[in-house]
Design a protein that fits this description.
The complex is a heterodimer of chains A (260) and B (259). Chain A is built from 10 helices and no strands. Chain A has 260 residues and is mainly α. Chain A has a single domain (48-252), classed as MetI-like fold (Orthogonal Bundle), CATH 1.10.3720. In chain A, α3 crosses α9, α7 (153-161) crosses α8 (166-203) and α8 (166-203) runs parallel beside α9. Chain A is globular. Chain A starts with 8 loop residues before the first helix and ends in a 10-residue tail after the last helix. Chain B has 259 residues and is of the alpha/beta class. Chain B folds into 2 domains: 10-79 and 149-258, P-loop containing nucleotide triphosphate hydrolases (Rossmann fold, 3-Layer(aba) Sandwich), CATH 3.40.50; 90-148, no CATH class. Chain B is 37% helix and 24% strand. Chain B has helices at 48-56, 95-99, 108-117, 133-145, 163-180, 191-197, 226-258, and strands at residues 10-19, 22-32, 37-41, 63-68, 71-72, 80-83, 151-155, 183-188, 200-205, 208-214. In chain B, α4 (133-145) runs parallel beside α5 and α6 (191-197) crosses α7 (226-258). The chains are: A mainly alpha (260), B alpha/beta (259). The interface between A and B is medium-sized, with 23 and 23 residues.
């Protein structure tokens, strides 16, 4: 992070040169007719589609619906994964009871469950939230478990010598030292959250960004399809930025996050 | 707040500790008066760390017992504090919060007082990661002193420091010990450190006390002193000679017994 402040303006702009150039070439090709708008509409057409969708309120509604699904799924899967990570990391009995089963389930690609999920839940929201929750659960479980397991035993011993009660040992030593690992899990999980939602909304949905894209395909509105894809990229980037912010805030003490 | 705290007297009776078939400490007898500064030296694996852990209540003896002020050690006690070779500070807490770890009620003034004792009051709100090794050990010392312990156990706390910082820390520990009069038990493999600080140096060899030497030098001790230097020399020789003898003797033994 630190070296970025020392960069000169030109160096800061350099990474953007290639994307800007590509967009310009794209626009030119579309305008002189080398690119059919069926294949790839011009960037300006995509922007127009975005403005049009925004003005009818369709955009906001679909983004809202998708975001709510993503967050509910993330919350459910995250809480379950975190809880099992804590229990199995702390108590040997729970690990013996659950870990093998969780590891077995983890190796099933959760998107393979889609046919079953449609049979169970139809094409309602429950099915999509279920899939997101399953996808998010495992990275959070594994990283929480690993974080708790690798707590420095010397610190725990010190805590006992200095009179910390079991509950204080957990809050003041175990949880904070597992936090960097847990946050890695959160970042992984955010990526999986979007991926799962895209697939789930594309296959079976009646609202949301994925539905918007599939609907547009039926009417050959390539500009809307391209815009929907860009939207996912933006939302994914936003989620990652929030995760980074969370890390910088919660791990201030960590040598790798200190700028002074 | 700085009033003198009475140190605790320590009585070790027939202490034996074994892990499986291996006996670490064998029928150890030792009594330490209140306020005394005792150093325990010995080669690695002689059982000195185990002894300290037993006194702290982190391990249970196999036989025998330990009395602190006449009370048997059953579990961890708030009168006993231990300082480790690695500082074992919590990186996610600031210096002041580390010092106040485990304190109840209005802990901040106490933690600040302890930080002042080690000369780090101005670093109270820094993260641990920005401190040097010597500063970290001073924070660890403040954390040990904040609850005004009656018995301070030092498990090679200066082993990882550079020579200059080590001498500084030795002086700091000596000064604080003189002011607050807690009983101190220092484990070290540095004979010079033992002679510089302790009233008594105890040499631990294969789980028993091989030597119990009172250091007659007055304080502050002068490192250039002849008596000081000769004490170190004789202790070192005692440590090394005994060892070389046991090495050269053991093959002979095997021969004589097998023949």
């Amino acid at each position: 992070m630190y070296h970025r402040f020392k960069q000169r303006p030109l160096e800061q702009l350099l990474p953007w040169a290639v994307p800007v150039l590509l967009i310009v070439i794209w626009q030119v090709c579309a305008q002189i007719g080398w690119l059919s708008s069926r294949v790839l509409p011009a960037p300006t057409a995509v922007i127009q589609a975005a403005i049009q969708l925004a003005s009818t309120g369709e955009l906001v509604r679909n983004v809202y619906v998708s975001a709510v699904r993503a967050l509910i799924g993330f919350a459910i899967g995250g809480v379950i994964g975190f809880a099992f990570g804590l229990l199995n990391g702390t108590f040997r009995v729970f690990e013996q009871l659950f870990d093998t089963s969780i590891q077995m389930l983890r190796n099933i690609p959760h998107l393979a469950l889609i046919p079953l999920v449609i049979l169970w839940f139809g094409i309602g929201d429950q099915g999509r939230i279920f899939l997101v929750a399953i996808g998010v659960l495992f990275p959070i479980y594994i990283n929480t478990f690993h974080g708790i397991r690798t707590v420095d035993q010397g610190l725990l011993e010190m805590g006992r010598v200095y009179g910390l009660r079991p509950w204080e040992l957990f809050w003041q030593i175990i949880l904070p030292s597992a936090l960097p690992s847990i946050l890695v899990g959160v970042r992984f999980a955010l990526g999986i959250m979007w991926l799962t939602l895209i697939v789930a909304e594309t296959i079976a949905a009646d609202s949301g960004i994925g539905y918007m894209a599939m609907n547009a395909r039926e009417f050959l509105q390539t500009d809307v399809v391209v815009f929907s894809i860009l939207l996912y990229a933006l939302l994914g980037k936003l989620a990652d930025a929030i995760a980074r912010l969370l890390e910088a805030r919660l791990l201030q003490w960590h040598p790798s996050y200190q700028t002074t | 707040m700085t009033q003198a705290i009475k140190g605790a007297a320590l009585e070790i009776v027939d202490l034996t500790k074994s892990f499986g078939p291996q006996t670490i400490l064998q029928d150890l007898q030792l009594s330490i008066a209140a306020g005394e500064f005792v150093a325990i030296v010995g080669r690695s694996g002689c059982g000195k760390s185990t002894l300290l852990r037993l006194i702290a209540g982190l391990e249970r003896p196999t036989r025998g017992g330990i009395l602190i002020n006449g009370e048997p050690v059953q579990q961890l006690s708030s009168h006993v504090r231990m300082m480790f070779q690695d500082s074992r500070l919590l990186l996610w807490k600031r210096v002041l919060e580390n010092v106040g770890l485990g304190l109840r009620g209005d802990w901040e003034p106490k933690a600040m007082w302890a930080l002042e004792q080690v000369g780090l009051a101005d670093r109270a709100h820094d993260w641990i990661a920005v401190l040097s090794g010597g500063q970290r050990q001073r924070v660890a010392l403040a954390r040990a002193l904040v609850s005004q312990p009656r018995l301070l156990l030092l498990d090679e706390p200066l082993g990882a420091l550079d020579a200059l910082t080590r001498i500084e820390m030795q002086r700091l520990i000596e000064t604080l010990w003189q002011e607050q009069q807690f009983t101190t038990l220092l484990i070290t493999h540095d004979v010079e450190e033992a002679v510089a600080l302790a009233d008594r140096v105890i040499l631990l060899e294969s789980g028993t006390i091989a030597l119990d030497l009172t250091i007659p030098l007055s304080r502050p001790r002068n490192r250039g002193d002849v008596a000081y230097a000769s004490l170190i020399k004789s202790l070192l020789e005692r440590l090394l000679n005994h060892d070389s003898r046991s090495i050269s003797r053991s093959p002979n033994r095997t021969f004589s017994y097998s023949g």
